[in-house]
Write a structure and sequence with these properties.
The chain has 13 helices and eight strands. The chain is α/β, with parallel strands linked by helices. Bound molecules: D-malate (MLT). The site of D-malate has 7 residues, from loops.
Length: 275
């Protein structure tokens, strides 16, 4: 994927043709836009723009991104990321997109839907949920954020490997397991910290879905232990025009574990929008 101009509020990359309403890829935590590589290469005919979240990949820190979108000193929030994504799209001259977010990327897609509704031509929610955290999950996130800023650094997210990959991947694909362990070890501590605080602060956005009258995809790995089938049903139930896909032999990282199925589902979503 080609990186676009360096003056964007977030590092952004484009691939495929520059006509048609593009898919906007929003990555999961604590990774960056590279997690989509295997999916993007399987759909060369689809226009795609992807971004790195603040503090991940080539994007500036959360504080710099907040400053760039006119919210200096903002507390960590996914709303700031949504505003930064909207600013990237405006600079690229893109007026409508199909946000497709995996896990944390899904939370950003929902914040974008709430704050920048007119940008949405469709939506893809992968291995994610629309509800807020309970008190225990929130406390755990704040603990990890503090640990990442302290001595633990990136190792604060090492235990995530247990939840990210499905049982089949763990049993049969040691190469992918090693790759994801490496990505967790390389996760930037400042990115981990703001990301966890922002996710802890996110509200329940289930009712945002009820206001969406665009084609939607809700997708989940059948072996995902972090985003449940109940979460899928909660989201799908609110959406007027939705395809639900359950990807066999995949956990939370469907886009890395089964990129063929994910690319097929995204291509169908893109075609439903670009009729
Ligand atoms: C992700 O994959 O983005 C994370 O699992 C999101 C989360 O911690 O809720």
């Amino acid at each position: 994927m080609a990186e676009v101009s360096g003056s964007e509020p977030l590092a952004a990359y484009r691939s495929g043709p520059h006509h048609g309403i593009p898919i906007l890829l929003l990555h999961g935590f604590p990774l960056d836009a590279l997690m989509w590589e295997d999916v993007v290469m399987r759909m060369p005919e689809v226009p795609v723009i992807s971004v790195d979240a603040p503090g991940f990949g080539d994007s500036p820190s959360f504080a710099d991104v907040a400053y760039a979108v006119g919210r200096p000193g903002a507390h960590p929030s996914l709303e700031v990321v949504a505003d930064a994504v909207a600013a990237v799209l405006a600079r690229e001259g893109i007026h409508r997109v199909i946000p497709v977010g995996l896990s944390m990327g899904g939370y950003v897609a929902l914040a974008l839907a709430e704050r920048h509704y007119s940008l949405l031509a469709g939506i893809g929610l992968l291995d994610t949920k629309s509800t807020a955290d309970d008190a225990a999950a929130r406390a755990n996130r704040l603990r990890i954020a503090d640990a990442a800023e302290g001595e633990a650094g990136s190792t604060a997210v090492a235990p995530m490997i247990d939840g990210l990959l499905g049982a089949t991947t763990k049993a049969e694909r040691p190469d992918l397991v090693a790759e994801v362990i490496g990505l967790l070890a390389a996760a930037p501590p400042a990115g981990i910290a703001w990301g966890q605080r922002a996710m802890a602060a996110r509200p329940d956005r289930t009712e945002v879905l009820a206001a969406l009258d665009v084609p939607a995809l809700v997708l989940r790995g059948a072996e995902d232990v972090l985003s449940t089938q109940e979460a899928v049903e909660t989201m799908a139930h609110r959406l007027a025009d939705v395809e639900v896909v359950v990807v066999p032999e995949a956990g939370h990282m469907t886009a890395m574990e089964q990129p063929d199925e994910v690319a097929e589902a995204l291509r169908r979503l893109w075609e439903r929008v670009n009729v």
